[in-house]
């Protein structure tokens, strides 16, 4: 094999190796991007779940406050039932 053929073969091998390394690096970057997107999506879902739970808690607390005011004023269901029962006696 002549020096020219050896140089050509060595250059060809180097080029193929470099292309393979670049492909491998791009694949790693794509995997990293997908992982980052998945993590972002999971974080968004968790935040949405927390926001929804917080909203339900606020709604429940507000309903409890409304019921307490109604009971204090004597217009709540439990007081109406008690008042009706005591009037019948």
UniProtKB/TrEMBL annotation:
Amino acid composition bias (Low complexity), ranges on this chain: 79-89
Regions of compositional bias (Polar residues) in chain numbering:
1-57
Where does the secretion signal sit in this chain? none
The protein's matches in InterPro entries, at most eight in alphabetical order, are given as: LEA1/2/D7/KIN2
Q: Where is this region: Disordered?
A: 1-89
Q: What is this protein called?
A: Late embryogenesis abundant protein 1
Q: What species was this sequence derived from?
A: Tripterygium wilfordii (Thunder God vine)
């Amino acid at each position: 094999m002549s020096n020219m053929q050896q140089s050509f073969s060595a250059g060809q091998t180097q080029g193929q190796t470099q292309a393979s390394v670049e492909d491998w690096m791009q694949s790693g970057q794509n995997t990293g991007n997908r992982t980052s997107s998945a993590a972002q999506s999971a974080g968004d879902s968790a935040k949405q779940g927390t926001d929804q739970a917080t909203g339900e808690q606020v709604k429940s607390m507000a309903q409890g406050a409304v019921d307490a005011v109604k009971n204090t004023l004597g217009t709540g269901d439990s007081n109406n039932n008690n008042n009706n029962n005591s009037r019948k006696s």
